[in-house]
Amino acid sequence: MHINFSKLEPSEEGVLVVGVPEKQTEDLTGIARDLDKRSKGAITKALATMRFTGGKNQLVEVLSPSGLDLDRLLVVGMGDAEKFDALAAESVGATAVARLLTSGQKEATFAVEVPKDATIDADTMAAHVALGCSLRGYRFDNYRTTLKKNEKPSLTKITIGTEDVAAAKKAWRQQEALSSGIVFARDLVTEPSNVLYPEEFARRARKLEELGVEVEVLDEKDMAKLGMHALLGVGQGSERETQLLVMQWKGASDRKAAPVAFVGKGVTFDTGGISLKPGAGMEAMKYDMGGAAAVTGAMYALAARKARANVVGICGLVENMPDGRAQRPGDVVKSMSGQTIEILNTDAEGRLVLADALWYCQNRFKPQFMVDLATLTGAIRISLGLEIAGLFSNNDQLSERLLAAGKAEGEELWRMPLGERFDRLIHSPIADMKNIGGQFGGSITAAAFLQRFVNKLPWAHLDIAGTAWFEEARCSTPRGASGFGVRLLNRLVADHYEG
Ligand code: BES
Ligand code: MN
Ligand code: ZN
Fold first, then answer.
1. Distance (Å) from CA 400 to ligand 1 centroid
2. Spatial separation of the C-alpha atoms in residues 349 and 360, rounded to whole Å
3. 269 close to 337: Cβ distance less than 8 angstroms
4. Dmax of the chain from CA atoms?
5. Which of helix, strand or coil describes residue 423?
6. From the CA of 8, how far away is ligand 1's center (Å)?
7. What is the pLDDT of residue 25?
8. Could you give the 3-state DSSP secondary structure of residue 486?
9. Which residues, 6+ apart, have CB-to-CB distance to 448 below 8 Å?
10. How confident is the model over 194-230, as pLDDT tens digits?
11. Three-state SS at 134
């Protein structure tokens, strides 16, 4: 979808999108009022007929409105004028694109005005309308060879009207980088596991080299030398080689300054291993690399917008399969840290992947902090549902910053507890720890396990098992891979770690 900006004026033909804030439906202002006059009240009538109140995500579509030469006029609700912010602007774009994408219409023009009383400026609004358009217009049709013409997207060109075109374009360049990072992550998550296995993930990440990211890939031999037997054990039953992906973006004025670090769980398929998962729904486990995809997508976005920060991204990439060589329940493995782990359930593999990835990250890079992202536990879906992710951390400042970044970007987090009372649930009689707790607090015992591989360093763990895949479209995310985490990490860096 091609997006450009032009002077704010209502187009006279094709598709026009306008916005109307809450409680202003009877007394339209600006462009909407002007159009209503020219159509002799057809718009106010349509709004009243459809019970349109201007609420967020509401939409009324008037086909060939009388007195105007338009094919369609879309009136999108903007919500409370005083609360109209970047996320609200984004949902205006997303709502319109959701309606238009396969409508048959090829082009659309937005003539959305900043509501009176709103604090957002016009170019920020325009850039975020564009972001909503591009994110909600995401499709993955690579494997659909028999799509009928009327099922394919028709919308290819969007023009967003704004007062200061140059300023809007500048604001959009930042958001466009973000959008590309999210799309990169969504593509990785959507690919099926026969196509996207560890080596293929690593290969695709090499694309980031074009943006100036340094990419290294450790293979099984390298990892064995480092003693990463927690991670290697997970891949033991797979025909595919396990990989450790290391990405570095050096954007700070001092390229040697301590980086911030992101670590992702990249299980390209999780069968559960010998502790095999039930068959029903197992196909979902192709997205068990959502954490790694978010880290890679965030690196993409940061490099694409040339973030003035040093950032490291590390992904443990592995396939968890049952096989004659697979690890067994009861096996004891030694992690890179030297700590031993009794594997009681081979389906609790994500923490084994992260144990070595976190340890490696902290020791090699001495980062300012580490944030890991992982589709780690089914239990987080039970406790927090499918719209917010779990946050676990040993550091209040990092937690506050992550919570705020999540709020600002519409990727919300909820902080969960850690502590000795949970840590003691993973004591093992034969090794330093076991890889599962008991029946209760499953997300917390998983996080407590990870904490054993973090020294004093500030660290946070985001359990995104509920949010990496959307069962239905929400805001700027169509059904499917969300890319959850990319925006959050990008915002965290932008707000606190750019000099
Ligand atoms: N990848 C799963 C967690 C998951 C579940 C992600 C649903 C996305 C959707 C993880 O590896 C897993 O299997 N966890 C087990 C842990 C248990 C064996 C302690 C779980 O949650 O059941
Ligand atoms: Mn598992
Ligand atoms: Zn898993």
1. 27
2. 17
3. no
4. 82
5. helix
6. 50
7. 83
8. helix
9. 418, 419, 422, 423, 425, 426, 437
10. 999 999 999 999 999 999 999 999 999 999 999 999 9
11. helix
137 CB-near residues (< 8 Å, 6+ apart): 1, 97, 101, 153, 155
Q: How many other C-beta atoms are found inside a 10 Å radius of the C-beta of residue 227?
A: 16
Cα 466 to chain centroid distance, Å, stands at 12
Atom of ligand 1 nearest to the CA of 442: 19
The reply to whether ligand 1 has any atom less than 6 angstroms from the CB of 290 is no
Q: What is the DSSP string of 72-114?
A: EEEEEE---GGG--HHHHHHHHHHHHHHHTTSS--EEEE-PPP
Cα–Cα dist 221/233, whole Å: 13
The reply to whether ligand 1 has any atom less than 6 angstroms from the CB of 350 is yes
What are the tens digits of pLDDT across the range 68-119? Answer: 999 999 999 999 999 999 999 999 999 999 999 999 999 999 999 999 999 9
Q: How far apart are CA 61 and CA 42, in angstroms?
A: 12
pTM above 0.85, yes or no: yes
Residue 236 near residue 352, CB atoms below 8 Å: no
Whether the CB of 463 sits within 6 Å of ligand 1: no
Contact (CB, 8 A) for 95 and 57: yes
Classify each residue of 86-118 as buried b or exposed e, where b means 16 or more C-beta atoms within 10 Å of its C-beta: bbbbbbbbbbbbbbbbebebebbbbbbbbbeeb
Answer yes or no: is the C-beta of 343 below 6 A from any ligand 1 atom: no
Measured distance CA(2)–CA(23) in Å, rounded: 33
Ligand 1 centre to CA of 352 (Å) is 12
Q: Which of 137, 190, 208, 160 is nearest to 477 (CA)?
A: 137
Could you list the active site residues? 277, 351
